[in-house]
Amino acid sequence: MLRFFYHWLLRFHPARFRERFAEEMSSIFDDVGGGLAGAKLVADAFLSLVRQWTVRSEYWEEKAVLSVPGARNSPVFYTFENYKPRKSALIEGAILTWTVCAVVFLAIKHSKVHYMYVPSVSFDSVAEPDFKLPKSTANSSPTPVGMLPRTQSAIEPQTNSSERNRLSPERPMPSKANSAAAISVSREQPRFDVKLPKSTPSSPPAAVRVRPRTQSVLESGRNSSETNYSSSERPISSHGHSSAGVSESQEQARLDASSKLRRATTIGPPVQSLGQPFVPATRISKETLLSYVGVYLTDAPDKLTVVITAEDEHLLIEIPGEQKSMLVPVHGAKFAFSDAQDNWIQFMKNDNGAVDGLRVHRNGSELRGHRKTN
Amino acid sequence: MKEDLNLFLPLSSAALHILLSLASDDLHGYAIMQEVSRQSQGQYKLGPGTLYDNLQKLIERRFVQELGHRADDDDPRRRYYRLTLRGRGVFAAELARLEEVVREGKLRLHLAKPRRA
Fold it and tell me: Coil, strand or helix: which one is A120?
């Protein structure tokens, strides 16, 4: 048994050492015999095996130059045609590969860092800038004079039928809402599409593309010279108004309104990622939230009773026949449905600033209602 | 040009004993092991692994020459080894170094001889 084990250890020595000395070592084992002396030789062979593979790497391969007579001053070439790896080498390689793979897989399995790809979700939302135009400007035309022509730079024809329906002239918005912009964030390309509603049935719908934070196509009157208009993208004067026909105060008001609109469209709506809790982008005070709480009755023919409640600093909306939905503040008095970002609600205020009505925009249709009770 | 053999000094204990064993006669591996044990009165014993590891180095440095099998030996697996001239020179250099060490050691031991109280 010891002899077999001894020869087994000799077989795992480097080839050069084994071919040169294995027979002699085997002969010595036979001379010494078994018993304690044989066990000592086995231990010696084990130490020799470790030594040869760890600190004797320079003797692993035969020096071919020395074995070729007269080859000291001439180059020596090798051919691998008849070369076949030893079976033991293949077995050792397989064991080594399996060990390394096992160690790597174990390390990966027990590592604490795991990367996971979380795709982002984009949504379209209609944003309305929080500003009011002076009455003189707003009343002078359904379209804010000077602003619409300037925001119609880089105009693209509106081809989306759903957008067309949402902003159709059959449901005209109040003059304040004429400056509302539908902002959508594209997932593939980091850009904002600002779609301007029709101001009047005669004026065509338009879309303005705004590059976030880097370039605003919405030009104010101060730097209009920097805008390159093509012949088809030239600003369109609405209802024949020209800047020459507008007073200086009105022009200043338009410039202020335009800059506010540009800020509102450049920032854009928040983009939430899947797997993350929805965090409202806007914080509203509790007093303001409570001012919206109440029961609202929509106009004919639906005459739905819409109940707005507050809970944990959030507004909840309850429509008959539907589940309660949480409202997420978007801008000003405007809130989006948390479960459907495309649906939104806006509270209306009277001249005293009190909330007296609402508009509910759902699935492309709009409901209007007035406040019934607090 | 004469080679400076001092570059190979000092030799390891195993190499020194192997060279000492081969200094008088050509021996095979098992005979070298027995000779080393006899020289050291059994205090230093070489295993086959250590023996052939050192023989490999000594052969590479051309201090020892492999002679192969002898016809008069009954075991055909045994190979005999001989000390070369180069190996003999290294062995002599190592002995001179050791003599110097012994002389220096004796001198210091004599100087540092403790006085009797």
Answer: strand
Q: Which of A2, A6, A18, A27 to mutate to test the interface with B (most CBs of B within 10 A)?
A: A27
Helix and strand numbers (H, E) in chain A are 10, 13
Go through chain B and tell me how many residues it has. 117
Radius of gyration of chain A (CA): 41
CA dist A263 → A145, A182, A332 (Å): 19, 14, 15
Burial class (CB within 10 angstroms; exposed 0-12, middle 13-18, buried 19+) of A218: buried
End-to-end Cα separation, chain B, in angstroms: 58
DSSP-assigned letters across all residues of B42-96: TS----HHHHHHHHHHHHHTTSEEEEE--TT-S-TT--EEEE-HHHHHHHHHHHH
DSSP assignments along A290-313, one per residue? HHH-EEEEEPTTT--EEEEEEETT
Instruction: Give the C-alpha separation, A50 to A9, whole Å.
Output: 10
How far is A212 from A331, CA to CA, in rounded Å?
18
CA distances from A326 to A315, A356, B1 (A): 6, 21, 99
Rounded Cα distance, A71 and A310, in Å = 96
pLDDT beyond 80 at B49 = yes
**A262-300 confidence digits (pLDDT tens):** 554 444 444 444 444 454 556 778 888 888 999 998 887
Task: Enumerate helices (H) and strands (E) in chain B, giving the number of each.
Answer: 4, 3
Identify the residue whose tokens are 């509302």.
A180
CA distance linking residue A255 with residue A271, whole number of Å: 29
Question: Does residue B60 belong to the interface with chain A, where contact is any CB pair within 8 Å?
Answer: yes
- Nearest by CB to residue A21, choosing from B30, B52, B60, is B52
Both tokens of A327, joined, read 């409202």
A56 Cα to chain B: minimum distance (Å): 9
**pTM (2 d.p.):** 0.39
d(CA B63, CA B90): 8
> What b/e sequence results for B28-45 when a residue is b if at least 16 CB atoms lie within 10 Å of its CB, and e otherwise?
bbbbbbebbbeeeeeeee
At residue A366, the 3 state secondary structure works out as strand
Chain A environment of B29 (Cβ under 8 Å):
21, 24-25, 27-28
Question: First-to-last CA distance in chain A?
Answer: 98
**pLDDT at position B14:** 92
